[in-house]
Amino acid sequence: MAEHPPRTPHASPAAAQPAEDGPPGGRPADGPAAGLTVDDIRAAHKLLSGVSRSTAMEGSRYLSRLVGAPVHLKCENLQRTGSFKIRGAYVRIAGLSARQRAAGVVAASAGNHAQGVALAATLLGVRSTVFMPVDAPLPKIAATRDYGAEVRLCGQVVDEALTAAQEYARETGAVLIHPFDHPDIVAGQGTVGLEILEQCPEVRTIVVGMGGGGLAAGIALAVKSLRPDVRIVGVQAAGAACYPPSLAAGRPVAIEEPATMADGIKVGRPGEVPFRIVDALVDEVRTVSEDALSSALLLCLERAKMVVEPAGASPVAALLADPGAFEGPVVAVLSGGNVDPLLMQRIQRHGMAVAGRYLSLRLRLTDRPGALATLLGVLSGTEANVLDISHVRTDPRLGLTEVEVELHLETEGPRHCAEVESALRAAGYTVIG
User: Fold this and answer.
1) For position 110, which CATH number holds?
2) CA–CA dist 194, 215 (Å, integer)
3) Contact partners, residue 293, CB within 8 Å, separation at least 6
4) Angle 91-278-53 (CA atoms, 0-180°, nearest 5)?
5) Which of 48, 76, 194, 221 is a plausible cystine mate for 84, CB 3.0–4.6 Å?
6) What phi and psi, each to the nearest 5 degrees, are found at residue 33?
7) Quick check: is 26 in a domain?
8) Dist. CA 424–CA 382, nearest whole Å
9) DSSP assignment of 293-342, as one string?
10) In this model, does residue 404 exceed pLDDT 50?
């Protein structure tokens, strides 16, 4: 796991830039983050009453033992639309004028922001169009349509879909609802921070996933304004980590071809608005590998009984990768739970393999009646669970009476894997790999 070195926080964003007038919703779309305060986040929280849920916070005994301090999970995966995005989207759209609402809204997203905008617009009686990458998960596309938006597929990543959405806004007059780069979005997401302080007033560290930075910026602004002693740690996927180079440069910079299974944080460039707040108030940014994300998602499913998407599991991945680095009590924000079932299957198997609980091997045996039953009898004695088995009989590498069998087994861990292989060899089988 890589990390951005801890930094001394700068002056607050409000002090660092010229102030703006007006409550949330009244700022220009391209305006600076200056003037955004905890009072704006409080106003957003009031506005969201009856719209978004104050999501549960659940303790995790497993993570608490691992970290050596209480660890709590802030369950935004249980939020309406399955993620925190409804918060910022509703605040942003609610602040539009009647003329702007009449023109409709447009957004770009891999799925979570899309659903948040679609539902928020529908609740407020506003027409919505959402551009999504062509490989966006099918369940997210279907859900966005079900919430009332017109969906258009364009580009390979969110940044390309965003370019198309911006062009659509110029052509039609629709208001662009950016996924993260607007003060109202940050204010809405910051309501998560207020809830954390209410639910866990003794918190010492908050760990939150980061893509463009809207959620981390909002939480940091809310929490640091009231509890400057609380440490805020952002987490990015190593293959889509745009913040470390941006923080080093002192300005948002783009990375080429972000790549990660965590589509919710697969962003190539930080937003101007959240970057200023993250640069000033977030104490540290860490990166996690795809293996760590897989393991974290599996842990959330098995131990916490929580369905989360890879982006939502990123804070847990950071805790698993370096448990001693976080002062407790710790709150890890599970930002979303909208995961494609097919992706979930692949991640589960990958996570099991990373944990040494998924064993794949090939072996050769004599092709005669009862040979497979004998092999299965040996495996039964090891208590390994056979997930899949296949035969290869026609291969120039095999002898006339040989057959190659490929096995996929579920085990209890690395030690059990070694025991299974040892039992097979003791029974006279040639284990190829």
Assistant:
1) 3.40.50.1100
2) 12
3) 237, 260, 261, 262, 310, 313, 314, 317, 347
4) 35
5) 76
6) -80, -10
7) no
8) 9
9) HHHHHHHHHHTS-----HHHHHHHHHHHH-GGG-PSSEEEEE-B----HH
10) yes
Reference 106, options 168, 182, 24, 28; nearest CA is: 168
Provide the domain count of the chain: 3
Residue 128's domain spans which residues?
Answer: 86-176
Amino acid at 393: R
Same-domain pairing of 207 and 290:
yes
Number of helices and strands (H, E) in the chain?
17, 15
- pLDDT value, residue 427: 78
The token duo for 229 is 């002693």
pLDDT at 68 over 90: yes
Do 222 and 253 fall into the same domain? yes
Lowest mean pLDDT: which of 15-29, 76-90, 146-160, 406-420? 15-29
pTM assigned to the model: 0.80
Q: What DSSP line would sit under 81-132, residue for residue?
A: GGBTHHHHHHHHHHTS-HHHHHH-EEEE-SSHHHHHHHHHHHHTT--EEEEE
pLDDT digits (tens, 9 = 90+) for 332-368: 999 999 887 777 777 777 666 766 677 777 777 666 6
Given a contact cutoff of 8 angstroms between Cβ atoms, the answer to whether 104 and 172 are in contact is yes
Query: 358-366 and 3-4 as β-strands: parallel, antiparallel, unpaired?
Result: unpaired
SS3 state of residue 410? strand
Last residue within a domain, chosen from 327, 351, 375: 351
Between CA 135 and CA 31 the distance in angstroms is 32
Neighbours of 6 (CB within 10 A): 12
The DSSP output letter for 200 is -
The domain that holds 396 is classified in CATH as 3.30.70.260
Asked if residue 109 and residue 59 are part of one domain, the reply reads no
CB atoms within 10 A of CB 5: 9
In the beta sheet, which residues pair with residue 59? 72
Q: Is the pLDDT of residue 90 over 60?
A: yes
Instruction: Say whether 166 sits in a helix, a strand or coil.
Output: helix
Using alpha carbons, list the distances in angstroms from residue 278 to 179, 211, 275, 289: 16, 12, 5, 22
416 vs 359: CA distance, rounded Å: 10
